[in-house]
Write a structure and sequence with these properties.
Outer membrane efflux proteins (OEP)
């Protein structure tokens, strides 16, 4: 019944925001893991990271090639004259020079290009892990919002039904009138809770549709999934895993290695590139003169000797090293925070039995029946209905906090296996 009410609320809100939704368009409940698979396949931002990999691989192909040869062509007119002769004619020269890099320079460029590919791949993998975690968190939030909206609508409907019964009775004194007003006020509060939950559902739905590359108004129902929250390793073990496996640390180490290669390349580039190649020239002014040989040219590093470039590369390497240390300290704080939230949430969940919500639901239904019979005062009746919704919201919020903290820990420590595992997937009623 809860799931049916949540679907109804979602459809009504979608009608208000985007227009009507036909019965044929009512979606089937989807599991959280199926939503993750969908997002990893269709998220539009994936193309950006994949294009970065393509660009890096293209740079790798170019980095391994020598420089292009240079063709030099000169064409002119020559006139020769003396005391007893005068002649003129065509003159031209052709030369071809191939730049020869200093030994090791091409290898350094190839290594830097390989590092760019690794960085691009790390960026893609990091985005995928963040995307999967965000989808799981949002989908779980959506499922809890669906439950809250359904329960709020259920309690509100219960208040309205009781109010209609009381109005039909003959009012005998002030007490029945006050009870009607109290229930009416409680009904208004429940309607507000239901509407706020429906708004929250729609906000989360918009984010999920964006992550999955779908239209913002595409309806979605999430099958409620329950998770197991086991104990985590100690902080020292978590931190060691984070420093070793975290994607940000992988990226910082790769960036530091890249800057080290750039320092070596800057030092290598202080030595000039030598241009070597054949040349041929011919003059036709009375007599024909031909000349052929091998030419050599190089830049003299007098005014620009490359020291500034080396110093700049060294400074960038120091920045990369400082960034890596800062990331390590930041990881330490984030791991500690996530572990603290997860531990405290787990303690609260362990003290709450799984039958607690069911017992509160049964108590709310029992109070409703007995209030109609006059065996329960109105204050107890209203309090039980409100406590039912508040308890459901509190437990769902703590579960969501624990899940988000676990997902954050998984990403921080670069876990190859999930810290939390699915216990079961509740079927929609």
């Amino acid at each position: 019944m809860y799931r049916t009410l949540s679907i109804l609320l979602l459809s009504l809100l979608a009608f208000a925001l985007f227009g009507s939704v036909s019965a044929e368009e009512k979606p089937e409940p989807m599991t959280i893991e199926s939503l993750v698979i969908n997002a990893l396949a269709k998220n539009p931002e994936l193309q950006f990271y994949e294009s970065e990999i393509v660009a890096a691989k293209a740079g790798r192909r170019v980095a391994g090639r020598p420089g292009n040869p240079e063709l030099d062509l000169e064409l002119g007119h020559k006139r020769s004259s003396g005391s007893d002769f005068s002649a003129e004619g065509l003159t031209y020269s052709v030369s071809l020079a191939q730049p020869i890099e200093w030994p090791g320079r091409i290898g350094l460029r190839k290594a830097i290009a390989n590092g760019d590919i690794r960085l691009a791949l790390l960026g893609l993998e990091r985005f995928k892990t963040r995307l999967a975690g965000e989808v799981r968190s949002l989908a779980y939030r959506l499922s809890t919002a669906q439950d809250k909206a359904a329960v709020a609508e259920e309690v509100s409907g219960r208040f309205n039904a009781v109010k209609e019964v009381l109005v039909q009775r003959e009012a005998g004194g002030v007490t029945p009138i006050l009870e009607i007003r109290a229930i009416d006020a409680a009904s208004v509060v429940m309607e507000k809770e239901a509407f706020e939950a429906a708004i929250e559902m729609q906000k989360v739905l918009l984010q999920l549709n964006q992550l999955m590359g779908r239209r913002a108004d595409t309806p979605l129902i999430v099958a409620r999934t329950e998770y197991d929250f086991p104990e985590t390793p100690g902080f020292a073990e978590l931190m060691a895993s984070a420093l070793t496996n975290n994607y940000r640390m992988h990226i910082r180490r790769a960036e530091l290695a890249q800057q080290g290669l750039r320092v070596s390349l800057a030092k290598n580039e202080r030595f000039p590139t030598v241009n070597v190649g054949p040349y041929y020239s011919e003059e036709r002014a009375g007599e024909r003169e031909r000349e052929a040989g091998i030419g050599l040219s190089l830049e003299l590093p007098i005014f620009r000797n490359g020291r500034v470039k080396v110093d700049k590369a060294k400074a960038r390497r120091m920045q990369a090293q400082a960034s890596m240390h800062a990331t390590a300290r930041e990881l330490e704080r984030e791991v500690a925070e996530a572990a603290l939230v997860y531990k405290n949430s787990g303690k609260r969940l362990a003290s709450w039995s799984s039958e607690r919500i069911q017992s509160l639901r049964e108590a709310a239904e029992l109070a409703d029946r007995h209030y109609r019979l006059g065996a329960v005062p109105v204050s107890t009746y209203i309090e039980l209905q409100e406590n039912y919704l508040e308890a459901l919201e509190a437990i769902n919020d703590v579960k969501a906090e624990a899940l988000e903290a676990a997902l954050e820990l998984e990403q921080l420590i670069g876990a190859t296996q999930k810290l939390v595992k699915t216990e079961k997937t509740a079927k929609a009623e």
